[in-house]
Amino acid sequence: MSKHGKVLVAMSGGIDSTVTAMLLHEEGYEVIGITMKTWDYANSGGSKKETGCCSLDSINDARQVAVEMGFHHFIIDIRDEFGDFVIDNFVEEYLAGRTPNPCVLCNTHIKWSALLKRADALDCEFIATGHYAKIKEANGRRFISRGADANKDQSYVLWGLTQDALQRSRFPLGHLTKPEVRQIAYDAGYAELSKKAESYEICFVPDNDYRGFLKRRVAGLEEQVAGGHFVNRQGEILGTHQGYPFYTIGQRKGLGVAFGQPMYVTEIVPESNQVVLGPVEELVRNGMLVYQVNSMKYPQIPAGLEAVTKVRYKDSGTLSRLDPTPDGKVAVEFFANVQGVAPGQSAVFFQGDDIVGGGIIYNSMPPQFLEN
Questions:
Q1: What is the pLDDT at residue 357?
Q2: Using one digit for the tens of pLDDT, what is the confidence trace for 31-44?
Q3: Active site members
Q4: CA–CA separation, 85 and 88 (whole Å)
């Protein structure tokens, strides 16, 4: 009989999930490993060899660890679930002129759902992953808090987890730094694994060419959107672009048009196939609307709450005022101007290290001087 119960551990074959399984095993949990096949890159037409959590090598690495530690390991194929939801959304968002965050969507709607479903089938009370984040509890609610390693903290991508999911989730690496995790693996005899490189690419775009992925995924897309115009804020034509889905808010390089000063993508207008360009000051925003909101620390976001809002993974955050709207969105007022707020990206609200909640950026509001 296990000391703490049964836990289903998501194992990618990498160092983080391996150490997660190892720590839980040592704590007295009955560990069952599971590796999820989410994507078959060989069929995507990409130019790079399949790597990361979906590769055969990674699956074999995960299984080998389970064999050596003496616990069961399963491989499940969720390519259909993943593709229908995550990849279709990825394509649809770019075609709508927005910039999606597929890792957030995958965590919230696919991986946790798949893990909990299999955990129930295997009579596991808990699930665990190798995320660098913590779970806290106060006033009867569970919420995500930043991991101890500021360089590896992954709390931002977990804002969408439900109370039920948090109740059953475990993050053993939340109190550790990456160097400490590498040392644990090394000391346990996994010297090669401790040196394994990390991948920061989208799993289904391992060559990092999302434009090429869109072209392969949507037949005739390149021809459909070619010939649109770069324009400035006043609507004056500045040049011709390759198609609005192939640009993102804040982009400066790769525009293919020379200007007398650095110019950035400040807005994307899919209806007219226009990409608006401007100097860096036209990227400034002092507010935004957020939808698909998940309130984590409170039953709902309190009106007038002050929180630090992150608008992208590497964003340090900006002090803001949050106000729920009657239609379920949250209006965010930044106390300092923010650059590069991109519709489709995640907005995550923090109080100290704790996540209050988060959502998807619906639109953004430029300062008054830009509206005139």
A1: 98
A2: 999 998 887 655 55
A3: 106, 203
A4: 6
Q: Tell me what pLDDT residue 235 has.
A: 93
Three-state DSSP at 145 gives strand
Q: Are 161 and 357 in contact (CB under 8 A)?
A: no
Longest Cα separation, the chain: 72
Distances (CA, A) of 15 to 61, 185, 188, 194, 307: 10, 7, 12, 6, 34
pLDDT, tens digit (0-9, with 9 covering 90-100), for 253-306: 989 888 888 999 999 999 999 999 999 999 999 999 999 999 999 999 999 999
Q: What is the pTM of this model?
A: 0.91
Which residues, 6 or more positions from 55, have their beta carbon under 8 angstroms from its beta carbon? Answer: 13
Asked if the 225-278 domain carries CATH number 3.40.50, the reply is no
110 phi and psi, to 5 degrees? -115, -65
What is the CATH topology of the domain spanning 284-371? Answer: Elongation Factor Tu (Ef-tu); domain 3 (2.40.30)
CATH architecture group of domain 6-194: 3-Layer(aba) Sandwich (3.40)
Please determine, for residue 54, whether its predicted confidence score (pLDDT) is greater than 70: no
